[in-house]
Structure formats: C-alpha cells, structure tokens
Design brief:
The protein has about 160 residues and is an all-alpha fold. The chain contains six helices and no strands.
Length: about 160
Amino acid sequence: MSATPAATGPLRPHDRAGRRLASLDLLRGLSVIGMILVNLMAGMSHRGPVFPLLLHSRWAGFTIADAIFPAFVLMVGVSVALTARDGTPDARRILLRAGRLVLLGLLFSNLLWLYDMTEGQPRLPGVLQRIGLVFAATALVYRRGNGRLRALLVAAILLIY
C-alpha cells in the first residue's frame, strides 16, 4: 500500500502531476484554442471579412478576442495560489521562471525581425513578457505578503485605475 500525498509531507514537483485542477486545465485549453483562432482571424483579416467576435475591438466594446489575455492572467493568479499550498518557491526560482517567460516572449515576438533585421524594429512588449511580469509580481507579493496586504494592493490598483 502506498501512502497518500498528505501523509508523506510536502509534494515534490513530479508528485504534483496527479493533483490537477480540472477547471484550470479546461480554461487553459479553451484559452489556447481561442488564442489560435484569434491569431488566425487576425492573419486572415487582410484577405477579406472575418467573424468580428474573433477580432479585438478597436476601442469601445468587448469581443471573445479581448477575453484571451485576461484568461491567461487569471490562470497565473490561480496557479500561484495553488502552488503556495505545497510550499511557495523562493524568490530566486520565481524570478528565474519569470525571466524565462520574458526571454521566450522576446524571442517569439521578434522571430521575423531576427530573420531580417533590416525590416522594421524589434518588438519589446508582448504577451509572454507581460505574463512573465505579472507572474513575478503576483508570486512575490503572494510569497511575502499576507491577506491584508494583498487586499490593500488590489484596492489601490483598482482606485488608481
């Protein structure tokens, strides 16, 4: 008989694979499908009319495309809170993971520029870079702060916005 994870102490990273939040996996899958559709429609929009809900709204309004990035940010927050139950990683690991996301984002958003550097300029802000920064800020605040500090930060950010 094997012991349950709770009886053996904190979970090691390879032990966590069996404990997944199905709703988070579903949201992740739907968001990736949505991201692929939105990118496909954006690429096809110069060829003719496309389904408008799969394009970002110009300014006023809200479409399916406008929900993709916030879904990823929501998943980052939920993941940080879930991993904190099993022991929050140290600041070094948090910053290394965030740095990898930022570097991957810089690479992916500049592949065409790296191919031909005479065309245009490199693109610094991108989706993965922003997700990496959100992850670093969220994980560090969650690691260092208590519930009151987090509530005050949320209130301050909303008031400033």
